[in-house]
Amino acid sequence: MRFTILIIFFLQLSVAVFAQAFKQEPAIDFKLPTSKGDSISLSQFRGKVVLLDFWASWCGPCRIANKHLVKIYPNYRGKNIVFLSVSLDEKPSDWLSAVKKDKLSWLQLIDQKAWNSPVAAAWDVNSIPATFLIDQEGNVIARNLMGTALESGINKLLNQ
Amino acid sequence: MQKSYLIILLLSLWGGQQYSFAQFSGGRLQATGLTCALCNKAIHQSLEQLAFVEKVEADIKSSSFTLTFRANGAVSPAKLKAAVEDAGFFVGELQLTGSWNQDPVEKGIPFVWGEQSFQFISSKTPSLSKAFTCMVIGKGYLTEKSLKKLKTDYREYLNLDSSIFQLLLIK
């Protein structure tokens, strides 16, 4: 009896955790510059799926994750999705050389305040890489999807 | 007469210690843990909040933090270690960069910087007016593996129970 209660308790707990992880929240808007100084805001992509990725040139795991994004990006070119990378580099030169080296051909933004970035704080980014999937209505659907889970997440949103 | 000699001797010793000091301008800190320490906000902020730390920069090449200390800041390896551990990581290696304002000290003779005492364990000691880099040797300041090796290599000099920070000159 006791055991059954314990199992039920853990089941409920796992359901609660699961629900929290997939709770939809409206994406918090921000405005950040490109390398040319143009100001880009997240909200201007309303109506499109957005893959938002926080990274930095000095972050090893981010550079590895970049390889995967580079690999899948051609599959989504011309579709209703925007890849948007936000770098937490302090020096634009470090950022730009990493963008060039990793061959990142989608939209690149920078917040030179790095870890003091109010954007990263608003998005609760405490470690990088941090990836978010935002739907056409501007809701955050998932966080930190990796590998094939990321692709299936994107595909699901695009086919809705 | 003997008494005055003793006073002069004591004064000169005291004076000698006063003049022998180094200034640590910066360092390099490698942190270890389950996840990428460089990619973690907590460790970065924890280090940045130390009073003697002016700047913290992540360096992917050495996968370590480059630290810039404030001029005349009381540099404390213990506080650096605590900051790293508070963020949930461990110190894998801690290097300090400094220079001598006056005569450098010999091996084994402690010198004071800030609130802390330090001593060099190797026979090599830094030369005057040259910048030097040294490694802090002690439990929690190195990986267990490196500490074990250094314990063997510098058995006769190393005193890990001492409250004086043991330094190994690198360059």
Explain what you see.
The complex is a heterodimer of chains A (160) and B (171). By secondary structure, chain A is of the alpha/beta class. Chain A has a single domain (24-158), classed as Glutaredoxin (3-Layer(aba) Sandwich), CATH 3.40.30.10. In chain A, 40% of the residues lie in helices and 22% in strands. Chain A contains 5 helices and 8 strands, in the order αββββαβαβαββα. In chain A, α3 (92-101) links the parallel β5 (81-87) and β6. By secondary structure, chain B is α+β, with helices and mostly antiparallel strands. Chain B has a single domain, classed as Alpha-Beta Plaits (2-Layer Sandwich). Helix content of chain B is 27%, strand content 32%. Chain B has helices spanning 2-19, 41-48, 77-86, 144-153, and strands at residues 22-32, 53-59, 64-69, 90-100, 111-113, 116-120, 132-137, 165-169. An 8-stranded mixed sheet of chain B has the order 2-3-1-4-7-8-6-5. In chain B, a hairpin with a 2-residue loop joins β5 (111-113) and β6. The termini of chain B are far apart. At the A-B interface, α2 of A face α2 and β2 of B.
